[in-house]
Design goal:
It is built from 15 helices and ten strands. Strand 4 and strand 5 form a beta hairpin. The chain is globular, with a radius of gyration of 23 Å. The strands form two sheets. Strands 1, 3, 4, 5, 6, 7, 8 and 9 form an eight-stranded mixed β-sheet that branches. A two-stranded antiparallel sheet has the order 2-10. The chain is an alpha/beta fold and about 425 residues long. Helix 5 packs antiparallel against helix 6 and helix 7 packs antiparallel against helix 8.
C-alpha cells in the first residue's frame, strides 16, 4: 500500500532499488495479465503515467508479480521491465525523471532514437554500383517505353529501410537487464513474457519469448518488436528479419489469455484525435492538415490500429467467455497528448503527469463498473487514493485543469525548450 509523505500527498520517493532478484519473492499471480500496446516514445510516456496510477490505486495486485506480460512495439519496453521486477515508479524515474539506476546506468534519453542509421546508409551506398548498372540496363532496354519506371524501381533499392538507429534500445536495455538481480533471458524470468514482432518475409505475427523464440535476448526482442518501418531498419535474428509488432497486433490480449490469465489489464496510448469531440469553443479545434505529412500519417496510423483493436476486443468476449479485459486509453479529444513534443524533457514530464491524472480520473468515474470486475480477482479500488486531489507522480510537472488553446500549448512548448537550452548555460560557474 503506497505511503504518503509531505503536504502534497505524494507517495514517499525512495531511490530505485534495482537489486531485486526476478526469481525471488512470492510466485507470480497466474490469473493476472498485462497487455501494453505500442506508440513510440509518446506511448511509453503515457503508459508509464497510467501504470503508476493503476499501481497505487488497485489493492491486491503487484505489477511486478503478474503471471504474464504482453508487449507490442513500444509497449514491449515496459513489459520487459516489469517482468524483470522493475516497478512502475522505478521505470518513471529512469525514463521520465532522469534518475540513473543506482549510479550503474544513465537515465534513458529518447533523443538516442534520433541518431542516423549510419550502417544502413553505408550498406545502401555500397550497393550503388550494382543497382545503378541494373537501372541503366533497364532504361536502355526500352528508353521510349517502360524503361524509366523500371530504372526508378531498381534505384528504389538504394533507399534506406530505416532513417534512425534503434540499436540503442537493445544496448540500453541490455545494460539495465544485466545489472545484479535482473536477467536478459526469457527463460530465467518468474513470469511469462511475450513480445510481439512481425516476420518481414512472411508477414506473420511472432511471439518472441514463446517456445522456440525464447533463446533471443530480451533486449534484442524489444528492439525487433519496436522496429517501425521507415523510421527504423528491420532487426535480423537467427537469419530472420523482424519489424514492429503493431503491423499485425495492436494489444494481443489473446496471448495473455492463452498463457493462463483470467483478467487482463490493457493500456493503449494511441487513439485517433477528434478535433470536434468535447469542443468548448473555437480555439479548442485544431485542423490536422496544416501540420503536413507528419500529422496526416500520425492520424492515419492511429485510426488504423485503433479500429483493428476495437474489432479484436469485441471478439475476445466471444472467443474467451468468462475471462475479463479492462482497458485504459486516452479520450479522442485529448489534444495535449496528440500535439505533445515527446522529445522535450519538460513535455515528457508533463505528459506523464497528464496520463497519471487522466487514468486516476478514469478509474474514479468508472468505479461502479470496475469494482465487481476487479472483485472477481481479489482486487479492490482504493477510493481514498482516487479521491485525494493532492497526489502527483512527477514533481514540478504542470497539471492542466482543462483543455488549452493550440497557441497556449505552442507557447508552453517554446518556453520549455528555451528553459532547457538555458539551464546548462546558467549552471556554469562564473569565470
Amino acid at each position: 500500500m503506497p505511503d504518503k509523505s509531505s503536504s502534497r500527498g505524494a507517495p514517499v520517493r525512495r531511490k530505485p532499488s534495482l537489486a531485486a532478484v526476478p526469481t525471488a519473492g512470492p510466485r507470480p499471480h497466474p490469473d493476472l495479465g498485462l497487455a501494453l500496446a505500442g506508440g513510440g516514445p509518446l506511448g511509453v510516456t503515457y503508459e508509464i503515467g497510467a501504470l503508476n496510477a493503476l499501481a497505487e490505486s488497485l489493492q491486491g495486485i503487484n505489477f511486478t508479480g503478474l503471471g504474464v506480460y504482453v508487449g507490442v512495439s513500444a509497449g514491449s519496453v515496459l513489459a520487459s521491465g516489469l517482468a524483470n521486477g522493475i516497478t512502475p515508479r522505478e521505470i518513471c524515474r529512469l525514463f521520465i525523471e532522469g534518475e540513473a539506476a543506482g549510479g550503474a546506468i544513465d537515465a534513458f534519453d529518447p533523443a538516442l532514437l534520433l541518431q542516423p542509421a549510419l550502417s544502413e546508409y553505408l550498406l545502401r551506398w555500397g550497393e550503388l554500383p550494382r543497382v545503378a548498372t541494373h537501372a541503366l540496363r533497364s532504361f536502355w532496354a526500352n528508353p521510349n517505353g517502360t524503361g524509366w519506371s523500371a530504372a526508378a524501381a531498381r534505384l528504389g533499392q538504394l533507399l534506406p529501410t530505416g532513417l534512425f538507429d534503434n540499436s540503442n534500445i537493445d544496448q540500453y536495455l541490455r545494460k539495465l537487464f544485466e545489472l545484479p538481480g535482473r536477467t536478459n533471458d526469457f527463460r530465467k524470468l518468474r513470469s511469462k513474457l511475450i513480445l510481439v514482432a512481425t516476420d518481414l518475409d512472411s508477414g506473420e505475427s511472432i511471439e518472441l519469448g514463446s517456445k522456440g523464440f525464447d533463446f533471443i535476448p530480451i533486449s534484442r526482442a524489444v528492439q525487433a518488436s519496436a522496429a517501425l518501418p521507415l523510421l527504423f531498419p528491420p532487426v535480423t535474428i537467427a537469419g530472420r528479419n523482424y519489424v514492429d509488432g503493431a503491423l499485425t497486433k495492436t494489444l494481443h490480449a489473446s496471448g495473455a489469455y492463452k498463457a493462463g490469465a483470467r483478467l487482463v489489464i490493457g493500456v493503449n496510448p494511441l487513439v485517433p484525435y477528434d478535433a470536434n469531440a468535447g469542443a468548448m469553443g473555437p480555439d479548442t479545434h485544431r485542423a490536422l492538415l496544416p501540420g503536413g505529412l507528419p500529422m496526416v500519417l500520425s492520424q492515419t496510423f492511429r485510426a488504423l490500429i485503433h479500429s483493428r483493436m476495437q474489432v479484436s476486443v469485441a471478439r475476445y468476449s466471444k472467443d474467451y467467455p468468462g475471462l475479463d479485459l479492462v482497458m485504459f486509453e486516452p479520450t479522442r479529444a485529448d489534444a495535449d497528448l496528440f500535439f505533445t513534443n515527446i522529445f522535450s524533457y519538460s513535455s515528457r514530464r508533463r505528459l506523464c503527469e497528464h496520463a497519471y491524472q487522466k487514468t486516476r480520473a478514469d478509474l474514479l468515474s468508472r468505479s461502479e463498473q470496475l469494482t465487481p470486475v476487479f472483485a472477481r480477482h481479489g482486487i479492490t479500488l482504493r477510493m481514498d487514493v482516487l479521491r485525494d486531489p493532492t497526489r502527483t507522480l512527477v514533481p514540478g510537472a504542470p497539471v492542466r485543469i482543462g483543455p488549452a488553446a493550440p497557441v497556449v500549448r505552442e507557447l508552453e512548448a517554446a518556453i520549455a525548450s528555451l528553459q532547457e537550452w538555458l539551464e546548462p548555460r546558467t549552471a556554469r560557474p562564473a569565470a
